[in-house]
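Annual report, structural modelling task.

Input specification for the carboxymethyl coenzyme *A complex:
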Amino acid sequence: MDDKAQLIIEGKTYELPILTGSEGEKAIDISALRQENGFITLDVGFANTGSCKSSITFMDGEKGVLRYRGIPVEQLAENSTFVETAYLLINGKLPSEEELTRFSVLLNDTSLVHEDMRHFFESFPRGAHPMGILSSMVNAMRAFYPEIPERSEEEEINVTFTRLLSKLRTMAAMSYKISRGHKVIYPRHDLNYAANFLNMMFDSPVKPYYIDQDLVDALNIFWILHADHEQNCSTAAVRLVGSARVNLYAAISAGISALWGPLHGGANQAVVEMLSDIEENGGDVSPFIARAKDRKDPFRLMGFGHRVYKTYDPRAKIMKKTCDLILRKLKRHDALLDIAQKLEDVALEDPYFIDHNLYPNVDFYTGIVLRAIGIPLNMFTVMFAIGRLPGWISQWKESMDDPGWKLQRPRQIYTGLKKRDYTPMKKREG
Ligand code: CMC
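The model returned the following structure:
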């Protein structure tokens, strides 16, 4: 088999190595191109550029496949918990019973947040978005907790990861309580990761929170589906910032900031806002479909389309099922689900959406599940961040362990003015 690609530039042929991934996807290695002939490649948005080799997550956007460490996400959503999936992503294997117990105990042991950090929380204005708070607080963690020293023992590294996984969840619940002016609820040692989170969010000194196992299960599924997604915007941010060898907390804080955007993790909030907007306008989806198709209108159907998936997002399928199940179990009806279903039916029959390969993505139904759990709208993207943390950690770890590690520094095609002289103030026109 030919393992070289040929590139002809100005009559000269260059041979470029071809790499093949474990699932057969192919790439042309252009890393020596500029050195050999002065050319770079241009790929705005990196839609066709691999930035690393990774053994964590496999996606096939044409077939709608998503696997963590080889295991289909459908099987994990059916059988696993978020904690076990986090272990799988970070360590590359499913844990034994003893390993899982040790990991869970460590998560509980490290769940408290330094009391001095509360002063920071309390200084944010009441209406501050929790994503901004979370990103700042994770960055601030470096001042309170030790960085992973060079050549650390495996155990020490794992404690740092576990501490971050555990405290991010505590901080997320704290930021919610403080934003409402309510008493902070501390984590409990007798509760598992998801139940503990729900309790910290919703328990109160005047009304104890009843933990519903169905909600715990739905939350586990939500977090499993968000746990990793190869080189998406926030993960790429974690890797890029991490490539400058900043500490783990600063790299994760960059990931949280990237996730905040409405084209990325912020879409789950934007979907519910859009569905509510449709509801307030009488429930007719057609004007919204028309706007999404209008090139002159910047409006997009939120929760539709994906850079990689050109078919139904496999996570959206599971989320839709979870959505039906949880509403049925809670014996609750959500008008937004009817609107979402109507929107999906119309869009999937519309030539614009068919031609552009636009299908529901994970965010389309997650908002309705989060609403059913009781999560307020401004916390939706924080929920995504908690879920994506094992992915960010494992991708950061993989990049740090990579013997071919390099500072990430893209090039550009300069399109500005040619060299010109500085004009003294008095001689400037206009
Ligand atoms: N509604 C209407 N048109 C769309 C949409 C949409 N949601 N998404 C893409 N298009 C059109 C776009 O206008 C363009 O049309 P044309 O070629 O005629 O000019 C074409 O499809 C390609 O768009 P693009 O922006 O170049 O495609 P992309 O691969 O960069 O976009 C996306 C991916 C997710 C940013 C985009 O589909 C989008 O903005 N979706 C809405 C936001 C959203 O739901 N984001 C969550 C993504 S999944 C969660 C996650 O992993 O972060």
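The two ends are 64 Å apart (CA to CA).
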